[in-house]
Amino acid sequence: MRQSGAQVNDAKIHPRLTLAGNRLIFEGMPLFDPSWLSLVGVLCVAGMVVSSHAETQKQENKERATFAAGCFWGVQAKFDAIKGVLNTTVGYTGGTVKNPTYEQVCTHTTGHAEAVLVEFDPSVVTYAQLVDAFFTMHDPTQLNRQGPDIGDSYRSAIFYHSPEQKAVAEAAKQKLNAEGKTAGRVVTEIVPAVEFYPAEAYHQKYLQKTGRVCH
To answer: Which stretches does DSSP call E strand in 49-95?
Structure first.
């Protein structure tokens, strides 16, 4: 049974947490007086504080990027395989119709591209590296198509979220055209990111769920 008012010796219980007498110190800032807690209770609270802080830092480090490279099933799977990518969502962007459906986009009258919204940790993978990966996962010289998929919804496009992303994308495109190693001129659109509409649930992680291989 826990003894009321039991004192716990000063201890470094985590690189950022110190139990100093009756005070729990987080990075030099007292949190509360835990004299009424058992040592087990203190450690549980400490674990929750550290976990919450780590999740907050993860969210603060997260950045977004949006790419269109043909059928979004395969594009999503390829970005998911990159270390540092935290989450991906397939959807529609760059068009004029609000909340478009897959059937509407397939008519090629809405102006939307099938795209992938990528959330990533820039301390693990840079935006420039994602752009390089984007250019290698499809043929950026094909206008309004990718392989057998034809229409503006399958166009090659980078939707930048900041002036810095725009500069990186344009530099990468210019480099590809200067090197002359592609089948033709790179026709990838580089345009500002606009409203992104997540696709229907059955499209999300489609290849992962079905085991199919995209062309």
So the answer is: 63-69, 85-93
The radius of gyration of the chain's CA atoms, rounded to the nearest angstrom, is 24
Active site (annotated) includes residue 71: yes
Q: pLDDT tens-digit profile of 95-121?
A: 999 999 999 999 999 999 999 999 999
Q: By three-state DSSP, how is residue 46 classified?
A: helix
Q: Measure the CA–CA gap between 215 and 204, rounded to whole angstroms.
A: 17
Q: Which long-range contacts (CB under 8 A, 24 or more apart) does 7-15 make?
A: 7/35, 8/34, 8/39, 8/42, 13/42, 13/43, 13/46, 14/46, 14/50
pTM for the whole thing?
0.74
CA 213 to chain centre: 23
Question: Of the residues 44, 71, 106, 214, which is catalytic?
Answer: 71
Q: Residue 179 — pLDDT band, cuts 50, 70, 90?
A: very high
* Tokens representing residue 44 in the block: 């549980």
- How is residue 51 written in tokens? 């976990």
Cα 18 to the chain's mean position, in Å?
A: 34
